[in-house]
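Sat 14:20. Reprocessing the chain from the morning session after the first attempt stalled halfway. Input below, unchanged.
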Amino acid sequence: MMAARHAMPGLAERLPRVRGRYDVYADLGKMTWFRVGGPAEVLFAPADAEDLATFLKGRPSDVPVTVVGLGSNMLVRDGGVPGVVIHLGKAFSTITVEGLTVRCGAGAVDATVATAARDASIAGLEFLTGIPGTIGGALRMNAGAYERETKDIFTCATALDGRGEVQKLSAAEMGFAYRHVNVAEDWIFIGAELTGTPGDQHEITARIRAIRAEREQSQPTQARTGGSTFANPPGMKAWALIDAAGCRGKMIGGAQTSPKHCNFLINTGSATAADIETLGEEVRARVLENSKIDLHWEIRRIGVGKDDPAAVTGHRP
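Finished this time. Tokens:
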């Protein structure tokens, strides 16, 4: 077993022997694009899928598990995340191409998958360039951009269930819906097969560059943000509803609704996770009052508040 970076009594000593790394009271804030939030009680970086399965089979049943990816569409609350946070690293980031099929690990970055497809003259995956995250996150929320969604390129996925058993999922078994799939929350995606169509490499490159340019022009890509905050209601745009409610540029503490794209919340430099979440809830309340539309969070919020009894209170020595 690879020892925890800081061996101390508590949760880490109850966890199964693994080949990967346990890190107690790991700073999750620095892993997120918002750059805010409390620590993980234990952060686990599995050596590979077999190691992850070993952990899932041996973990105590009362220990909660949370999976994180690139940290781009996630808000970690200030009290941290009790239990074990799993981060899928390099071993889960492989990308291979065969014919028109791109096989990738759940830790592969969406934009990198789009580039690999381009290099193989596979069209249809360019939209992944506009999604700041990993394939695991794209699978979990049927991520989409520029008129396409993950379901449009999906062939099959591989996951580990809560008992560490390997499960293969077809499109029908995924149950794709708008920003949602019908897969148990305790299942962890570890890989997928995505399929495109034959394409011209120069045309694919031009499309990727156009997407990048559009993102730079319309979104606060240089700010500390979590991407699109709220899902678009059917037939509507969340940003337009937020704008109509007078929330563009609104601030609470160090959190602000982006003046550039008001469906993005940003950390101006001094925000806490509570500032960002409170601002998001205020925006939701104002939109509901103004338009009678109940916006739903697209950003994944994990952990507990700093005053919660379950808050992670330990510190790295």
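The longest strand covers residues 188-195.
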